[in-house]
Amino acid sequence: MSAAVTADTRPTGNADFGAWLAVAAGTIGAFMATLDISIVNSALPTIQGEIGASGTEGTWIATSYLVAEIIIIPIAGWLERLTGLRTFLMVMVAAFTAFSMLCGVSTSLTMMIIGRMGQGFAGGALIPTAMSIIATRLPAHQQPVGIAAFGATAITGPVFGPVVGGWLADNLSWHYAFFINLPIGILLLSLLFFGLPAVRAQRHLLREADWLGIAGITLFLGGLTIFLEEGEREQWFESRTIVAVFAGTILGFVLLMLGQVIAEKPVLRLRLLLDRQFGAVIIMAIIVGMALYGTAFIIPQFLTAIAGYNSLQSGRVVFLAGIPAAMLMPFVPWLIRSIDIRVVVISGLAMLALSCWLETDLTSQTSGGVFAESQLMRGVGQTLAMMFLNQAALSSVPIEFSRDAAGLFSAARNLGGSLALAGISVVQDQRIWLHQRRLEETISANSVLVQDYMNGQAVALGGMPTAYQALANTIRIQALTLTYVDMFWILTVGVIAIMPLALLLRPLPKRGVPAELMH
Question: Which family, according to UniProt (predicted)?
Answer without folding.
Answer: Belongs to the major facilitator superfamily. EmrB family.
